[in-house]
Design brief:
Two copies of one chain form a homodimer. Chain A folds into two domains: 254 residues, L-amino peptidase D-ALA esterase/amidase (4-Layer Sandwich); 120 residues, ArgJ beta chain, C-terminal domain (Ubiquitin-like (UB roll)). About 1% of the residues of chain A have low confidence. In chain A, helix 2 packs parallel to helix 3, helix 5 crosses helix 6 and helix 7 packs across helix 9. In chain A, helix 2 links the parallel strand 3 and strand 4. The first copy, chain A, is globular, with a radius of gyration of 22 Å. By secondary structure, chain A is of the alpha+beta class. In chain A, the strands form two sheets. In chain A, strands 1, 2, 3, 4, 5, 6, 7 and 8 form an eight-stranded mixed sheet that branches. Chain A has a six-stranded mixed sheet with strand order 12-11-10-13-9-14. The first copy, chain A, is built from eleven helices and 14 strands. At the A-B interface, helix 8, helix 9, strand 12 and helix 11 of A face helix 8, helix 9, strand 12 and helix 11 of B.
Chain lengths: 408, 408
């Protein structure tokens, strides 16, 4: 089932090649379609790897494999299957992962822990060995492909291909970062997992790369939500080939580390926003900014309560300046809040302050802001210095059509 | 804005009169409508009262008043305004509550803490003193009305009038319980608060009545959700006039106490289900039963994660036996769970067991169950003895139409 391109879609950017990264795609035909659905990215020896995975208590075997392989710290290849998530498939699912890992590691003559795998698509159906191995063999023999081909091959229900780039100076060396991502929110008819892959020619020790990715994740991928549902397979991996030639970074104290971390965070934010922009049925991109909470963690929970509220999301879909629904969402978050200290802004325009609507409130400019595609909801709790920003989309008939007007 | 009667609506039941309870309704005209929207229920002297209110951190002044008045333990009157929630109105809202309380307590010559008030409807607009006091004066002079009139007068976006009854034997005395409730889920264009009122002629000491209502609430009102949003004004009050003539119950050790508590819990469950049956856009009534969790509390959190998942709710709307979405919702609950121990049932039919789809799974009987209006999702976590049941409804285009195709 293919859906119309999101009105919030962005054009595919120009991405530079990354030395030591060789992506290839092939047709495993996990579904009855004629498209590349198996991706194989070969990485030069000594590539560092870091990753973050779903918080789900029922993760896929691919996620379990990545979690354990990440302890090894280096990577030689990434394999991504699209069309079959291989989740909730018991021992058969684990066997499929082991087969793919063994095939790739035997070919590259590397440790099994240097092979990283992901899968996205239908759940409950074990990844078919024959299709997976035939697809992998075809990918081995394929020519290197473009970033666009890779972004297309990892996609499932996505309505547009998603990628971003950034760069940083490490000493005198300019390093490049490229990322591709798929997902149309946490959910989809076939459970659109968020899978993101970041590649850089920088030389970063695995422990430092993990430290940087985990920090970036906290303010980017962990701050997006389409409908509060969480895939069993969400995975973001970062690979640093070290081909740029500078001395490897091992700690934040070294020159260039902060610059690289900033570029990585910027890239993660771009990729995270693209997922929200492909949120199912989305017509508005919503930024929720919370300030004045008792702590940043409290602000984050309040922001997610607002961003996950169907009441708030449908109000934005209806271009309705319904600040009462924002009050409701703050109240239900369970975090410290004082009704009479709250202030609420839409698009920077104060609507309510100190617990009541502002004197002479003029809805016209607020209504104008809500007619746009980029909505900003600001809430000040008035209690402390805690701040947080999260991103989401509106909740529309399109969402229901995609998820309810459907049979598995 | 009036919506079509819910397909899950129930006929209004026959309710007995309750000695010591005199309901009256009048037109305060809080909105531009010609209907009774102010309810005044006079209660005989010595009536015990108990209550539970919203967990929102931003409650309405009515909720704050009820919370403090409940410490007093007795009630002489209940006032309910429909059409204006008086929430998020600062000092003006508090003043309106004090005015209504003063007017009623002066008339009855009782303590102010014996007057209970609720309001539901538009938020952010202080309850207008003139309309409220004129409506209250008209109610004072009105003839006693029927339960149906009361149920209609407290309603806002409800699509059908909701009431239930139960009875119990306390010693040789039969006592009657009647309840009315309004709300179409936690939410609505004007924030459809859940307001419930229970009246009985039994004689129950306030502390015991509170103990019974709090216990009943935990397995009834606290176990329903339409979309996870929580009103700033939710309130359930129980009034016991003691007119039945039996010796007052003061502890659970006395004969009849268990029977009354059971009848109260049954009444609360009936009322809670009626709210779900009027859930916005609802076409299916869904019972989620979780067993095998590490504790009852853990089972409850898992059940709510399933019941609040847009992915699960849209699947049911689509009559789709998408058990993968149930796995997802279990996984995201954050509670102890082992993917390979999970089993899932639809309508009692096992779909998945020990982490994989059952051998020879036949979807036909499951599909037949999902075509009905009463859906049962069963999940066994396989770890312990914790159990919980919650009730919700499906998520449909009707929900979006009510909440997004709307301007405040």
């Amino acid at each position: 089932m293919k859906h119309a391109r999101s009105p919030l879609a962005q054009p595919f950017p120009d991405l530079p090649l990354i030395a030591g990264v060789s992506p290839r795609v092939a047709r495993a035909r996990y579904k009855d379609w004629d498209r590349c659905d198996l991706s194989y990215v070969e990485l030069s020896k000594g590539t560092s790897v870091a990753g973050v995975t779903t918080t789900s208590k029922c993760p896929s075997p691919e996620v379990e494999w990545c979690r354990s392989a990440l302890k090894h710290g280096t990577a030689r290849a990434l394999l991504v299957s699209a069309g079959n998530a291989n989740a909730f498939t018991g021992g058969k699912g684990r066997a499929a992962v082991e087969m793919l890992v063994a095939t790739a590691s035997d070919r590259l003559g590397c440790a099994r822990e240097e092979i990283f795998v992901s899968a996205t698509g239908v759940i409950g159906v074990p990844l078919p060995h024959d299709k997976a191995s035939a697809g992998l063999e075809a990918a081995f023999d394929a020519d290197p492909c473009s970033w666009r081909d890779l972004a297309d091959a990892i996609g499932t229900t996505d309505t547009f291909a998603k990628a971003a780039t950034a760069s940083a100076m490490i000493g005198e060396t300019r390093v490049e970062l490229c990322g591709v991502i798929k997902g149309s929110g946490m959910i989809a008819p076939d459970m659109a997992t968020m899978l993101g892959y970041i590649f850089t020619d920088a030389a970063i020790a695995p422990a430092l790369l993990q430290q940087m990715l985990s920090a970036a994740n906290r303010t980017t991928f962990s701050c997006i939500t389409v409908d509060s549902d969480t895939s069993t397979s969400d995975t973001v991996l970062a690979f640093a080939t070290g081909q740029a030639g500078h001395a490897p970074l091992v700690s934040f104290d070294e020159p260039g580390a902060d610059a690289f971390a900033a570029a990585l965070t910027d890239l993660c934010r771009q990729l995270a926003h693209l997922v929200v922009r492909d949120g199912e049925g989305a017509t508005k991109f919503i930024e929720v900014r919370v300030s004045g909470a008792e702590s940043d963690a409290s602000a984050h929970r309040i922001a997610l309560s607002i961003a996950n509220s169907p009441l708030v999301k449908t109000a934005i879909a209806g271009e309705d300046a319904n600040w009462g629904r924002v009050v409701m969402a703050v109240g239900k978050a369970g975090e410290p809040a004082d009704r009479d200290q709250l202030s609420i802004r839409f698009g920077g325009i104060e609507v309510a302050a100190e617990g009541v609507v502002v004197d002479g409130y003029d809805e016209a400019p607020v209504a104008a802001h809500l007619k746009g595609q980029e909505i900003v909801i600001g809430v000040d709790i008035g209690l402390g210095n805690g701040v947080a920003t999260v991103w989401t989309c509106d909740l529309t008939h399109g969402y229901i059509s995609i998820n309810a007007d459907y049979r598995s």
